């Protein structure tokens, strides 16, 4: 399950217990599905009773805006519970990091970058003269795996970072709290450095690359999003994609980089992105690959993108299962929401696939 311990437990204990409590406490008076909300009929391959239970629980989460569940390429359930439609691009917050990692994968496939490339020569004058000499050791892979060693700019440091006049220079000037290639240090600044590296290496904006290498072959929209004071597109936050676009993104990865008959990413890249580098979040216990979180759900390996507030893409290749959930990105004061989404996966959606297999 999506917790530090990988053993299955009942709803009475652990992370799932806390999540189940939050689900049970959801008001039945929550806002009903928006007018015109889409819902497909259930398809074979998922246990209808368990899926129905998950839908009922999901409908009572006031922060949840949409949910899509697909099995073996077939949409089994989709609904916009509230808020924008399933085709409206929404802020996916830090799930942007996973999309950005895929842009980097496409750049590597095209020979524009290598995982082993050191970033300082690519960035050139963007590296401040005052930066610690260890910046010279940071590679593209270190950025993707959150192992750059630099003090994170997320959490309590985020505000100072985005208020700075030069985001790339500020992130590169942070003190080293570990060596490059050391422990995982989750940081939006690290992802933003990757955006700058992509721009410097290709001579094209991150937006242009994302549209050309991902949006066009997936036949989805990626609207423009915010940029730093130097014009570098925000790497790691604020991207917008619709729930259905996120489903195509997740399905492409489930299919080893293929979208229909179109090769979007090499299969070897997807395998590498889903290989844990050994880094583990001290807050959740989850491991990390190249832009993807890695854990288990109901005993099955799950790879997921995770954005603040509950912007989720779950991919379980062993079950041919992909699920997307989007939530209010600006909600405050709602505790346990992401844990409740994990519980939906652990206790209803994944078991529905196991029983329907």
From TrEMBL:
Keyword Hydrolase in annotation: yes
Domain Beta-lactamase-related residues, every copy: 67-327
GO molecular function, one term: hydrolase activity
Keyword Membrane listed: no
UniProt xrefs under InterPro entries: Beta-lactam-related (IPR001466), Beta-lactam/transpept-like (IPR012338), Diverse_Enzym_Activities (IPR050789), TAT_signal (IPR006311)
Signal sequence extent: 1-29
Pfam families associated with the record: Beta-lactamase
Sorted UniProt keywords: Hydrolase, Signal
Name this polypeptide is given: 6-aminohexanoate hydrolase
């Amino acid at each position: 399950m999506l917790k530090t311990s990988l053993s299955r437990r009942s709803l009475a204990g652990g992370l799932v217990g806390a999540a189940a409590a939050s689900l049970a406490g959801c008001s039945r008076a929550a806002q009903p599905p928006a007018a015109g909300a889409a819902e497909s009929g259930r398809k074979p391959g998922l246990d209808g009773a368990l899926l129905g239970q998950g839908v009922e629980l999901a409908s009572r989460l006031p922060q949840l805006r949409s949910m899509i569940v697909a099995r073996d390429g077939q949409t089994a359930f989709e609904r916009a519970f509230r808020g924008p439609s399933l085709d409206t691009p929404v802020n996916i917050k830090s799930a942007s990091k996973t999309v950005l990692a895929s842009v980097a994968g496409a750049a590597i496939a095209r020979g524009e970058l290598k995982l082993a490339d050191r970033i300082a020569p690519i960035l050139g004058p963007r590296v401040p003269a005052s930066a610690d000499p260890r910046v010279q050791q940071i590679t593209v892979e270190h950025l993707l795996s959150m192992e750059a060693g630099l003090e994170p700019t997320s959490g309590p440091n985020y505000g100072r970072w985005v208020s700075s006049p030069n985001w790339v220079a500020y992130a590169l000037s942070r003190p080293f709290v570990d060596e490059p290639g050391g422990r995982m240090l989750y940081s939006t600044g690290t992802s933003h450095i990757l955006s700058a590296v992509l721009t410097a290496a290709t001579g094209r904006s991150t937006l242009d690359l994302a549209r050309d290498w991902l949006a066009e072959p997936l036949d989805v929209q990626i609207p423009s999003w915010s940029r730093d004071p130097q014009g570098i597109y925000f790497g790691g936050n604020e991207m917008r994609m619709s729930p259905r676009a996120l489903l195509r993104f997740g399905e492409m990865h489930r299919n080893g980089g293929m979208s229909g008959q179109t090769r979007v990413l090499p299969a070897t890249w997807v395998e590498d992105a889903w290989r844990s580098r050994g880094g583990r979040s001290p807050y959740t216990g989850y491991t990390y690959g190249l832009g993807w979180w890695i854990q288990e759900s109901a005993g099955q390996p799950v790879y997921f993108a995770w954005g603040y507030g509950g912007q989720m893409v779950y991919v379980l290749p062993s079950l041919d299962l992909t699920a997307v959930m989007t939530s209010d990105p600006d909600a405050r004061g709602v505790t346990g929401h992401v844990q409740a989404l994990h519980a939906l996966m652990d206790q209803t959606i994944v078991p529905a696939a196991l029983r329907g297999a």
